[in-house]
Design a protein that fits this description.
17 helices, mainly alpha, iron, two-stranded antiparallel sheet, Heme Oxygenase, Chain A, elongated, 2% strand, EC 1.14.14.18
């Protein structure tokens, strides 16, 4: 299969500089699976002190230089192994548009004041762990999992990274010519449009979702450790770098959280058998009919907690309970008055 050209991935349907993106309805897509499956760890990354401070414009040039230096090593390895495994990536491999390593090196040299062409940043311990993870995957029988790392990094750069870019330029008074902040610049492309087309290419990949979502969680956790290192470097009180096991176990934790979520939403056992969204479609009184005439439920729980008393937390919160109570009361009154 030939790799689509950059033009195929990047339709330039723009008017007056604005991005016009065509929305296409899909079923369960890989891009959606990754987005949904990484929500928790994504939120955790945003709550690292370094990132929270960054978003508030509280960042010093040394910390920013350290970040760009570390990411230089990450992207150098990522882009190298992506090139080597291009045959597994299909239309998602777009080095001309996405490669960041050269820009990161230029930024680091500018920010650190080391303009010599022989100057290179030193990789931190957490960065070395990240690089070794990429290398290990690339040399395994599951090299397609590199897609999870590419998606996590590049889509992040095109999304939240654009906000961080504005914060960095303002906080550090970076020149308008781009020095020091070129990492976040993607010349000639519309980020919103590019992301949509990139996701559509991702959704066409013939890979099982769960493994890629698991590895995307690991990718986020590896990035978190790099941010935590910067907090330690900055002397943030209480800052620590969690062990590598934290990152590697992120895949397992995601699966556990997923199962816990299913159990949480399953609701209490009901003698009528209404214990899941599927079974609840048989309920004669709850829910509403969809286009196919099947009743659907918003939550899986017994519709009669008052009568059966096996759902004490709900009790009189359901209108059905009040309806039955009123009916029983009316029936009792009618019996009494009829005598």
């Amino acid at each position: 299969m030939s790799t689509p050209s950059r033009k195929e991935l990047l339709p330039s349907n723009m008017k007056g500089g604005a991005c016009h993106v065509a929305n296409k309805k899909r079923g369960v897509a890989l891009s959606k699976s990754i987005k949904e499956g990484t929500k928790m760890v994504h939120k955790e990354a945003e709550n690292v002190f370094f990132i929270r401070s960054f978003l508030k414009g509280n960042i010093n040039i040394n910390a920013y230089a350290k970040m760009t230096g570390n990411l230089y090593h990450v992207y150098t390895m990522l882009e190298s192994v992506l090139d080597e495994n291009e045959h597994l990536l299909f239309g998602t491999h777009q080095p001309e548009a996405l490669n960041r390593s050269d820009r990161l090196l230029d930024d680091w040299r500018y920010l650190s004041g080391r303009v010599s062409s022989t100057a290179y940043p030193e990789a931190s311990p957490a960065t070395v762990d990240y690089v070794e993870r990429l290398e290990k995957i690339a040399n395994s029988s599951e090299a397609h999992l590199l897609i999870a790392h590419a998606y996590t990094r590049y889509m992040g750069d095109l999304s939240g990274g654009q906000i961080l870019a504005r914060c960095a330029r303002k906080a550090l008074n970076l020149p308008e010519t781009g020095e020091g902040g070129s990492f976040y610049e993607f010349p000639g492309i519309c980020p919103k449009n590019f992301k949509n087309v990139y996701r559509s290419k991702l959704d066409e990949l013939p890979y099982e979702h769960e493994m890629l979502v698991s590895e995307a969680n690991v990718a986020f956790a590896l990035n978190i450790r790099i941010f935590e290192e910067i907090d330690v470097y900055n002397g943030v009180e209480g800052a620590i770098v969690r062990p590598l096991e934290f990152a590697l176990s992120a895949a397992k934790k995601w699966k556990e959280d997923k199962e816990a979520g299913k159990r949480k939403n399953s609701g209490p056992a009901c003698p009528f058998g209404f214990t899941s969204k599927t079974n609840m479609t048989r309920c004669p009184v709850m829910g509403s009919k969809n286009m196919n005439g099947v009743r659907t439920m918003s939550k899986a729980r017994c519709p009669w907690p008052f009568i059966l008393l096996h759902d004490p937390k709900r009790r009189f919160q359901d209108w059905q309970s009040w309806l039955v109570l009123a009916g029983a009361y009316g029936f009792a009154v009618s019996l009494i008055t009829s005598k």
